[in-house]
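User: Can you recover a sequence for this backbone? Please restate the input before giving your answer.

Assistant: Of course. Working from this structure:
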């Protein structure tokens, strides 16, 4: 059984288990699971939060060399302080890259470009290894996520909620999202799609900051991320550049 308390990038193979005992109440966490084996084999991962809740079966789409999009399980620290993921021993060829995202995770950000998101409207590359963070001031701001790829998924975390953005959504666009325990859509997480009638390549969201940290993470594939950008602009202090 592997120790996963820092929530960093870790590899899970058939017969293996990873456990994180470091979840905090008042936070929503995303468990990111990406197929990283050398064969195009779909993998079933079992996620456990406690002895009273049935394990959650999560399907991670088959691909090769870590080139697929992530399946995302959402877990609340109010439900559990511990989460375990495992792959059955009979899935001998399975290999999953796993990590945990939230405002505080992963504690070990090795393998990520862990950078502040500038509040100046510039377009920043939103690669598969991107983890942007920012303490957003108490004023109006506009977030934009843009890509030419189909079904591009990214996640924004604040302490008690996750927002999942899907550009160019396909039918059944939420198939890769797995709420666990008491996690409930429109309360603990929400899904944001492009505006009806507008360009499906662009998501624009205006919001007021509250002086707390937000984190943005990519949940898509390297191919889909090649044209993806993310930007954050202040709407109430346009004459100033905030870093």
């Amino acid at each position: 059984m592997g120790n996963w308390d820092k929530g960093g990038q870790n590899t899970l193979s058939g017969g293996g288990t990873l456990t994180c005992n470091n979840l905090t109440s008042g936070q929503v966490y995303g468990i990111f699971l990406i197929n990283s084996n050398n064969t195009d084999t779909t993998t079933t991962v079992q996620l456990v939060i406690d002895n009273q809740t049935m394990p959650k079966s999560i399907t991670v789409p088959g691909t090769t060399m870590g080139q697929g999009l992530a399946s995302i399980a959402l877990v609340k620290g109010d439900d559990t302080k511990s989460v375990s993921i495992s792959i059955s021993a009979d899935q001998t060829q399975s290999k999953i890259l796993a990590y945990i995202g939230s405002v505080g995770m992963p504690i070990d950000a090795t393998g990520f470009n862990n950078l502040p998101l500038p509040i100046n409207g510039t377009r920043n590359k939103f690669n598969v290894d991107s983890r942007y963070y920012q303490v957003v001031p108490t004023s109006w701001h506009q977030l934009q996520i843009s890509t030419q790829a189909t079904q591009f998924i990214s996640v924004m975390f604040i302490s008690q909620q996750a927002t999942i953005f899907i550009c160019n959504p396909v039918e059944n666009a939420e198939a890769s999202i797995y709420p666990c325990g008491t996690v409930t859509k429109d309360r603990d997480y929400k899904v944001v799609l492009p505006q009806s009638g507008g360009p499906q390549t662009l998501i624009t969201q205006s919001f007021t900051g509250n002086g707390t940290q937000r984190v943005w993470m990519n949940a898509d594939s390297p191919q889909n991320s090649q044209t993806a950008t993310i930007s954050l602009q202040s709407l109430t202090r346009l004459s100033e550049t905030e870093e």
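That completes the design. The longest strand covers residues 28-35.
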